[in-house]
Specification:
Layout lengths: L1 E7 L4 H13 L5 E7 L13 E2 L9 H18 L3 E5 L1 H13 L5 E5 L11 H15 L4 E4 L2 H9 L8 E3 L18 E5 L8 H10 L7 E5 L5 H10 L5 E5 L4 H7 L2 E4 L8 H9 L3 E4 L12 E4 L4 H13 L1 H18 L2 H15 L1
Parallel strand pairs: 1-2, 1-4, 2-3, 4-5, 5-6, 6-7, 8-9, 8-11, 9-10, 11-12, 12-13
Helix pairs in contact: 2-3, 6-10, 9-11
Length: about 350
C-alpha cells in the first residue's frame, strides 16, 4: 500500500476539481490518500473526509507557516506517508520548508497548475519569481505539468531538470452527452471572478458587441472582482451581459452556451475549457500557455487585450453558422482524443507507484 499526502492550499476552481478527481478515481486498493486542504481562499465547501486546515492560507504570517509545516510533519508521522503531492505554489513552498527542516526519506511530487512565472510582470520581478521557483522546486522528485506548454515553459526557464518534468494532462468526467452547436447567440465563461481570469476584458468584448441583436454574454463564477464587475456593467449600462455568481449547475450553463470565451491572463490546463469542449462548444481563448493545447481548429486564439479581434471573430461566426457547427464537432473530437479522466488517473497512479 502506498500512502500519499495530498497538500492543497488553493482548494478551489480547477485545482479543487483535480484533487477531487484523484480522491474519486485513484485505486484505493493500492493507494491510500490523506487530503490536507484550506478552504479559506475560495470559501470552499471541503468534504468531510478531507482535513481542513485554513492556516495553510495564512502564508503571510510566519507563525502560521510554522504551524502548517508542523501539521504536515504530524500527518507524515501518523499516516506513515510515502509520497507528498503538493498542488499549486503555496503548498509547494510549505512542503519545501518541511523538507528543509524535517528531512524525511519521502518522494515529493509537485503539480503547479500554472507557474507563477507565467504571469506577465516587469523584467526584474520576473527574474526574482523564476529564482524563487527554482529554489523550492529543487527538492521535488517529479513535477507534473498538466500541459505540454506548461512543461515547455518550465524547461525554457530552467526551473527544473528535464528528467523531473513530466506531462499528465487534466481529464474530466463528462456530465452529459455533447451537443453540436448550430448558431451563436450565447457566449459563456465559467471561472473564478478574479484578476487571473481577466473578467474586465470579458466586459469590454461584450461592450464592443452591445448593438448586435440576439447575442448575450454570461460570466459564471464567484470571486473577489464579482461586485466590481457587476458595478462596471451597471455603469456602462450594458444589457447584453450578466455576472451570475457561483453556480452548482455548470452543465446548465454549458447547454445554454454556444461559444466558450476565456479571457485568462495565464492558465495551467483549465478544466472549464475542457468541460466546454466535452459539451460541444467552440472556444474563443486568449493565446496564452494552458490555452494553446486546448485549441485545434475548434475556434480562435486571440492575443491578450485584442478586444476588437475577439469581437470581430464573434461577429463573423454569427454570420457563418456552418463554421460554428464545424468548430463544435472539432471540440468534441479534441475532448475524446486527449482529455478523458481515465488517462489522467492512470498517469498519476503510475507516478505514485514509481515513487514508492
Amino acid at each position: 500500500m502506498i500512502h500519499v499526502l495530498e497538500v492543497c492550499e488553493s482548494y478551489g476552481g480547477g485545482v479543487k476539481k483535480h484533487v477531487d478527481y484523484l480522491d474519486k478515481y485513484l485505486n484505493t486498493s493500492k493507494i491510500q490518500m490523506t487530503f490536507l486542504v484550506s478552504g479559506a481562499r475560495d470559501n470552499a465547501d471541503v468534504p468531510d473526509d478531507y482535513i481542513q486546515y485554513d492556516e495553510l492560507s495564512s502564508y503571510r504570517n510566519p507563525l502560521a507557516v510554522i504551524k502548517s509545516v508542523y501539521k504536515i510533519l504530524k500527518l507524515v508521522r501518523q499516516n506513515k506517508v510515502d509520497v507528498i503531492h503538493a498542488h499549486s505554489t503555496i503548498a509547494a513552498v510549505l512542503v519545501f520548508f518541511f523538507r528543509l527542516f524535517f528531512w524525511r526519506k519521502l518522494v515529493l511530487i509537485y503539480t503547479p497548475h500554472a507557474y507563477l512565472s507565467e504571469k506577465k510582470t516587469g523584467r526584474v520581478k520576473s527574474k526574482i519569481v523564476v529564482l524563487i521557483e527554482k529554489m523550492y522546486m529543487s527538492v521535488y522528485d517529479k513535477v507534473i505539468n498538466v500541459s505540454y506548454q506548461e512543461r515547455q515553459h518550465a524547461l525554457e526557464h530552467k526551473l527544473t531538470t528535464t528528467r523531473k518534468q513530466i506531462v499528465i494532462r487534466n481529464g474530466i468526467e463528462s456530465q452529459s452527452k455533447p451537443v453540436v452547436k448550430r448558431r451563436l447567440e450565447h457566449v459563456v465563461n465559467i471561472a473564478r471572478c478574479d484578476r487571473q481570469k481577466n473578467p474586465f476584458e470579458f466586459i469590454r468584448i461584450a461592450q464592443r458587441l452591445r448593438n448586435v441583436l440576439d447575442l448575450d454574454f454570461t460570466f459564471v463564477g464567484d470571486g473577489k472582482l464579482l461586485d466590481a464587475c457587476r458595478k462596471e456593467v451597471q455603469n456602462l449600462k450594458l444589457t447584453n451581459i450578466k455576472f451570475v455568481g457561483f453556480s452548482h449547475d455548470v452543465d446548465k450553463w454549458l447547454k445554454m452556451g454556444d461559444v466558450f470565451l476565456s479571457t485568462s491572463l495565464y492558465e495551467g490546463l483549465p478544466f472549464s475549457v475542457i468541460e466546454a469542449e466535452a459539451a460541444g462548444l467552440p472556444v474563443l481563448l486568449t493565446n496564452v500557455v494552458g490555452h494553446q493545447e486546448l485549441y485545434r481548429d475548434n475556434g480562435f486564439l486571440y492575443e491578450l487585450g485584442d478586444v476588437d479581434g475577439a469581437a470581430d471573430w464573434i461577429e463573423q461566426m454569427k454570420k457563418h453558422t456552418k463554421r460554428v457547427s464545424y468548430f463544435s464537432r472539432q471540440s468534441i473530437a479534441i475532448y475524446m482524443e486527449r482529455f478523458q479522466i481515465s488517462k489522467m488517473v492512470e498517469g498519476v497512479e503510475k507516478i505514485y507507484e514509481e515513487g514508492k
